[in-house]
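User: Some background: our group keeps a shared notebook of sequences we're curious about, and every so often someone picks one and asks for a predicted structure to add to the entry. Today it's my turn. The entry only has the sequence so far, pasted here. Could you supply the structure so I can complete it?
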Amino acid sequence: MSLVTIVLNILLPPLAVFMNHGLGTTFLISLILTALAWLPGIIHAFIVNG
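Assistant: Of course. Here's the predicted structure to add to the notebook entry:
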């Protein structure tokens, strides 16, 4: 995992997921989790991109 991915996982989780996986269910889940609460979105981004 690069430094850019780590920073994006923290600041903009859906963007980090989109950059690694494109548009799809993983991106949608990340977007929903980030919209509901920021921390679940970060955790999901680290798990998916890890």
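Suggested note for the entry: The chain has a mean pLDDT of 94. The chain is about 85% helix and 0% strand.
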